[in-house]
Amino acid sequence: MRRRRPERTLRILLLSDPDFLPPDTLEGHTEEEIYKWKTEFDVITTLREIGHEVRPLGVEDELAPIRVAIADWKPHIVFNLIEQFHGQRSFDHHVPSFLELMKVCYTGCNPRGLVLAKDKALAKKLLTYHRIRTPGFLVFPKGRRPVRLRGFDFPVIVKSLSEESSIGISQASIVDSMEKLIERVRFVHDSVGTDAIVEQFIEGRELYVAIIGNKRLRVLPTWELVFEKMAAGSAAIATERVKHDVRYQQKHEIEDRPAKDLPAAVAASIVRTSKRIFKILELDGYARIDYRLSPGGELYFLEANPNPEIAEREEFARAAHADGTSYADLLQAIVDLGLRRKRWQ
Known about the structure:
Layout: E1 11-16, H1 31-49, E2 53-58, H2 64-73, E3 77-80, H3 94-101, H4 111-118, H5 120-129, E4 137-140, E5 156-160, E6 174-175, H6 178-192, E7 196-200, E8 205-213, E9 218-219, E10 223-227, H7 240-244, H8 246-251, E11 254-258, H9 264-280, E12 285-293, E13 299-306, H10 315-322, H11 327-340
């Protein structure tokens, strides 16, 4: 693919968790080490290769360094890779809020969209109201013991209400009795440290749909999580090990790849539904919508992921590549969308 040069050189301040600030080279680092900061490395390296000035800044629990960097360096835009603030994922929306108060352009989703999408229960309520199919669900706050299911039956899957990246999810998350449900909810409360959401478990295929845009949306080819060597009795779900354990992925031949053999009606529904979800949840920039597709062809919304993983090897960038967009052009498009959206004007 031919890489186009940007129209002008930009000063780009890249915000990330301090633990994910990458070295200048991959040389001498193991695959496990690289995996932790692959997104930051890919974004910084590629933006510099196409001619931009990039200054990384680790942000943990202070906004002052951002203000100082903006005042001293005057970046044209902030590339926001922050996933948490002060150790809390639910605080991530405060960083783009601060950038808007500073009247600085930034990449990715706006604060309102982050709040709506990352509250999994609220997002499902909003989409159910708009007649988008979601699994039945119940929320059990920390300290509240499950009593019974209402509106749906076993099997169910138990997740953290607020954590992302499959944190706390394993094969044991799928339960088929009240006794196991109580045990797993307690695990989420005690070990993950968050409220628990209990969802009707949908057998079928796990699909990921990448979208890029502010008002005019582009839906990229549908991706699927595929298990070539799934252990007997295991369910095809994105557990924490499936998502983050490279050796486990290789051992069980787990990969995400273009979804094959989707009926034309289902493929059209995916595009139409994904655009509706993006707008209902007031997202912009770029996002990924996760679904389960039942054997009967029914599409169930699982969750929306604003500012998803955009390392070159991950599904978002690979879906863009399959649609004819190089990684450099994808990052440039994300930057351009951030520059065009000035919410304070």
